[in-house]
Automatic annotation (TrEMBL), chain C:
InterPro entries membership: MrpF/PhaF-like (IPR007208)
Keywords noted in UniProt: Antiport, Cell membrane, Ion transport, Membrane, Transmembrane, Transmembrane helix, Transport
Protein name per its UniProtKB record: Multisubunit Na+/H+ antiporter, MnhF subunit
Annotated organism of origin: Thiohalobacter thiocyanaticus
Family: Belongs to the CPA3 antiporters (TC 2.A.63) subunit F family.
Mode of membrane association: Multi-pass membrane protein
GO molecular function: sodium:proton antiporter activity
Subcellular location: Cell membrane
Transmembrane domains' residue ranges: 6-25, 34-53, 59-83
Entry's Gene Ontology cellular component terms: plasma membrane
Superkingdom field: Bacteria
Length: 106, 310, 89
């Protein structure tokens, strides 16, 4: 049973990682590309890390290393994305989105 | 599985050569730095594939991490001194000279590797035989801190020399107090304890697993870099003597231990086996502090002003 | 069972590395390259953890942790440079 859970987590992790990078490579402008890695890839590596934590906890003691990396990635990924978006806005990168209707949005 | 591994190895090898070439050849220095960091990252993976976890760890800490930050600091300073566009064009001939040197050095290395015995005996047997008396159980740490401790002593001193060189170039212009960004500031309050914990863990783990002073120092130094990026500054009363003490305590402590051992009539850095573990931990702890302080201060660039900015 | 899953995951993450490298080299803008580098960090961590499961050893855990830490510092420094033209204002 555990083996199925592990296999599922590992494949899900690989799939999300791949989808995140696919988004990075394929989407049309920077602001869309920001979505792929910061969400899907983080989720993907999260799945892989949880799989690893479960796998190495099968012995006598639980493996907490992976939880530390997962926590760290989940705390820092939004901050990286925030800074990247700020940098892109600062450099006035072109977006494929329509301009907002209201001028009050800055 | 083996076909897949060949594929991943091929991707790594091709990616490394391509990144190295692009990093060297692209005219935009910022892009070059980004590519250089990516190169360090793939290099760490390559060391993992070559089953050298200690080297992979060092490459991840220094190649993929702090060297990039230091290069970026250098680029920022270059822009201050000579904005892009005002710099004199490096002549083609001079750009090719380092390339020629690198090709020659590469060819020499290749010849050296090819002239090795097919199955070199190495020193693993000797290290394994003496490991019990070294005070640690990780053979890499045993070699770096005990059997060839003078190498590491010199490495720590080289770092100090680099800092002296950077400090002697230019004194710090008085800087205005930067307003820390709210996001980074809050994050840093959460993250700083984690980073200190991770550094302590790496330092402690070095005795029996990959890790040690350089990796721990790099993590602690990265914490310092992050703090500088978030706009945190050392209190002016700490930038004088306390900072200098932190910088020299590692090499200084190392030298003191070496000296004390010489005075007891032992050869250079040959620890008594009973004390070896404790001495290595002491040296590594002090070295971690100094490496961290040196790296963070190098990132800031010039000597911090002792008096508060006007 | 786990071996099959690992093979599939290795293939997917290997492809992800290739895609990130492609974006890294193509750009077109500086933030694109930083984003690609950030993704490359995360992909590398996934590869390291998968290697660890495959060889049944957590000897690469420290490397994965360090890459996570250093990746974040690198991304912040690069973004700050773009935002200010200088990293320490």
């Amino acid at each position: 049973m555990l083996e199925y859970v592990l296999a599922f987590l590992i494949i899900a992790g690989g799939a999300f990682t791949f989808i995140g990078s696919l988004g990075l490579a394929r989407l049309r402008d920077f602001y869309s590309r920001l979505h792929g890695p910061t969400k899907a890839t983080t989720l993907g590596v999260g799945c892989v890390l949880i799989a690893s934590a479960v796998y190495f906890s099968q012995g006598d003691q639980p493996s907490l290393h992976e939880i530390l990396i997962t926590l760290f990635l989940f705390i820092t990924a939004p901050v990286s994305a925030h800074l990247l978006a700020k940098a892109a806005l600062h450099l006035k990168l072109t977006s494929v989105a329509r301009r907002p209707e209201s001028e009050n949005l800055e | 599985m083996s076909l897949l591994q060949t594929g991943i190895d091929a991707l790594l090898a091709l990616g490394l050569v391509w990144l190295a070439w692009r990093a060297l050849a692209c005219p935009d220095l910022f892009r070059g730095i980004v590519l250089f960091i990516a190169f360090g990252l793939l290099m760490a993976l390559a060391w993992v594939r070559l089953e050298a976890p200690d080297v992979a760890l060092a490459e991840a800490a220094i190649g993929a991490g702090l060297t990039g930050a230091l290069l970026l600091a250098a680029l920022a300073r270059l822009n201050r001194i000579a904005p892009a566009g005002t710099r004199a064009d490096t002549r083609e001939a001079w750009r090719n000279a380092p390339a020629l040197l690198l090709v020659l050095a590469g060819a020499g290395l290749g010849l050296a590797v090819l002239s090795l015995l097919p199955e070199p005996a190495g020193l693993q047997a000797q290290v394994a035989a003496e490991l019990g008396r070294s005070g640690v159980s990780n053979p890499v740490t045993a070699v770096l801190l005990n059997f060839r401790g003078y190498d590491t002593l010199l490495e720590v001193l080289v770092l100090l020399l680099a800092l002296l060189a950077a400090w002697s170039l230019e004194a710090e212009p008085p800087r205005r107090e930067a307003a820390p960004g709210p996001v980074l500031d809050l994050l840093l309050r959460l993250l700083l304890p984690v980073l200190v914990l991770a550094a302590a863990y790496l330092l402690w783990a070095g005795a029996h697993a990959p890790g040690g002073a350089f990796q721990a120092g790099a993590v602690l130094g990265a914490a310092g870099v992050l703090a500088l990026l978030a706009g945190w500054r050392l209190q002016p009363h700490l930038t004088g003597l306390p900072l200098r003490l932190a910088i020299v305590i590692g090499p200084g402590g190392f030298l003191l231990v070496a000296w004390a051992l010489l005075l007891t009539g032992r050869p250079l850095l040959e620890y008594p086996p009973a004390l070896a573990g404790a001495l290595i931990l002491l040296i590594e702890t002090l070295a971690t502090l100094s490496i961290a302080a040196t790296l963070a201060v190098l990132f800031q660039g010039s000597r911090p002003a002792a008096e508060p900015p006007a | 069972m786990i071996d099959t899953a690992l093979t599939i995951a290795f293939t997917l993450v290997g492809l992800a590395v290739a895609l990130s490298l492609w974006r890294l080299l193509r750009g077109p803008d500086a933030p694109d390259r930083i984003l690609a580098l950030d993704t490359l960090y995360v992909n590398t961590i996934a590869l390291l953890v998968l290697f660890g499961i495959q060889i049944d050893s957590n000897i690469y855990f420290e490397a994965a942790l360090l890459i996570a830490l250093m990746g974040f510092v690198g991304t912040v420094a690069l973004c700050k440079y773009l935002l200010r033209g200088d990293i320490i204002e």
